[in-house]
Amino acid sequence: MDSIRLLIVPFLALAALLGTLGHAQQPASSNSAGNSSAKQPASGADRVVLKVGDVQVTREEFESRIRDIEPGHAEEGAPGKDRQRLADDYASVLMLSQQAVAKHLDSSPEVARQLDIARMQVLSDAEFASLMQQAKPTFAEVSQYYSAHASDYDEVQIRRLFIWKQGDNSKGAPALTSQAAQAKADQIRKAYSSGADVKKLSGDLTKSEEGMLDPNPLTFTRGELSSPMEKVAFSLKEGEWSEIEDTPARLLLIQLVKRDRQQLGQVSPHIEKQLQDQKMQLLLNDLKKNAGIWMDGTYFGTAVAPVPDAQRRASNPPSELPKQEKRGISNNEEQ
């Protein structure tokens, strides 16, 4: 999906400021000082909890505007210090916005430009949220996808056996030949097959600095292992060992401990997001085709660079995209 980059202040804070600006410019409401003779409710959503000049803020207004910025801190059940700090910050923003309107700063070109961007951003995110809801797949679609791609959710539990051929030279450890490494690996596997405690085998091997044996099997799904190791791991029978590599540095073998398949309930959130992203991409493409978008090729250029990780960003509102940090997917790494 093409990236829409709006370099402005964070959306939530700006939306809150925009709301207070709008409130400050409106005439006094039924809760304002102009109607101070009316009896104010002692509790409930309409209870006035904050005043700045002639503007009164009810509990519902305060909590709704603060909730998205600092969830859980504005409600009455939150710690008093937190609510007092938020109230002081809110009152300061409201006071400053009133002063800005009184000085007609909202009519200045720069402030008007920022308000126009904020309005465009809020409306864009609202439509984006509506489209995301529209693109949400049904349970039947998720189930159908799972059935058609069931093998993608296979997983294996493997145990790895490393035999080091090149020891720590600082300790004068001798280098093992391929034949000696094979003999050591055979010794470990024979002891393991005869029922020896695998954790003790692993500990003894590590202490000897001759290799490493996983004391507990590691679980991998498709795509998490290197291609050569994945091909072997998913082709083995349970309990079977296979050599993966024999290099001057090490000998590596793996054992398939168990083969399994993730159930629909385990992977349905992932499938749902994947299908939603795909449907969202199609909706956005259709909107772009019908929106009459034109770009000056002499200014922007004609070549459009591919956007990395587009599917992930398809589920984020355009205003949130600049704030997303690249996050690496941490999988079990081969040692």
Question: How does this structure look, described?
Answer:
With 335 residues, this protein is an alpha+beta fold. It is 45% helix and 13% strand. It starts with 10 loop residues before the first helix and ends in a 22-residue tail after the last helix. The strands form two sheets. Strands 3, 4, 5, 6 and 7 form a five-stranded antiparallel sheet that branches. The protein has a two-stranded antiparallel ribbon with strand order 1-2. A hairpin with a 3-residue loop joins strand 6 and strand 7. Helix 1 crosses helix 3, helix 1 packs across helix 4 and helix 5 crosses helix 9. The N terminus and C terminus are likely disordered. The protein has eleven helices and seven strands.
Topology:
Blueprint: H1 11-25, E1 48-52, E2 55-58, H2 59-67, H3 80-102, H4 109-134, H5 139-148, E3 154-164, H6 178-193, H7 198-208, E4 211-213, E5 218-221, H8 227-233, E6 241-246, E7 250-261, H9 264-290, H10 297-300, H11 310-313
